[in-house]
Amino acid sequence: MKQVIDRLSGLRRYVPSKRITFLPLMAAAAATTALTHALAVGAAETKPAEIEAEASSVAENRMSAAIRGDLEKRDVDAAQQARALKLRERSLAAAEKRISDAAATEEQAEEPAAEEDPQAAQYDSLARIYQTMKPKKAAAVFEQLDLTVQVEVSRRMRERSVALVIANMGPKQAAALTMALAQPAGVPAASGTAKGKG
């Protein structure tokens, strides 16, 4: 096509006027179009079965690609759901384990409480009573108790409460109780009262 245009442009040299007529240019364009059309018609007439087969294979390829894409998407979604389900199962198993461990710990904590002798429960009760009293009044009563009772009750009281009671006791009684508390828990305190002369 370019050659035709170049030739027509070359004709310009031969035209005496500066005006170019478009008739030869139009004729060349029409001839090129007719030639292209003839080639296309000839190709279509010779191979219609091949064209139909190619069109159907293109359609099948598109359809199979779409189906493959849908299947891949479903596979990815199924894998994500499986991972989420496994994660939930793991978290549920961990929660069940924590609950069972907490229940076992609670049962173990309750067992020694049930096995305690009633005297230990009495000491616990006395410790709560002396903790709620004013330290000066608790010290006055504490001095009258047996040293073993003082020790058992003191060991069940908060340290701050014991310190306030000992601070309000007489020096000899405070020293005796302190010495008894310094002994390990299994060693019995010297029996008798912690009554002193000062």
Topology (SSEs and partners):
Layout: H1 2-11, H2 23-46, H3 48-115, H4 118-132, H5 135-142, H6 147-156, H7 159-167, H8 171-182
Helix pairs in contact: 4-6, 5-7, 6-8
Biased composition (Acidic residues): 107-118
Protein name: Magnesium transporter MgtE intracellular domain-containing protein
Organism: Pacificimonas flava
- Summarize the helix and strand pattern as letters: HHHHHHHH
Q: What is the residue-averaged pLDDT?
A: 78
Provide the structure class. mainly alpha
Give the uncertain stretches in residue-range form. 192-198
Pfam families: MgtE_N
Protein name: Magnesium transporter MgtE intracellular domain-containing protein
Domain Magnesium transporter MgtE intracellular: 126-179
Biased composition (Acidic residues): 107-118
Question: What does this molecule look like?
Answer:
With 198 residues, the protein is mainly α. Among the domains are: 2-46; 118-182, no CATH class. Helices cover 79% and strands 0% of the residues. It has helices spanning 2-11, 23-46, 48-115, 118-132, 135-142, 147-156, 159-167, 171-182.
What key phrases describe this protein's structure?
0% strand, rod-shaped, disordered C terminus, 8 helices, mainly alpha, 198 residues
Structure described in brief:
The chain is mostly helical. It contains 8 helices and no strands. It is rod-shaped, with a radius of gyration of 54 Å.
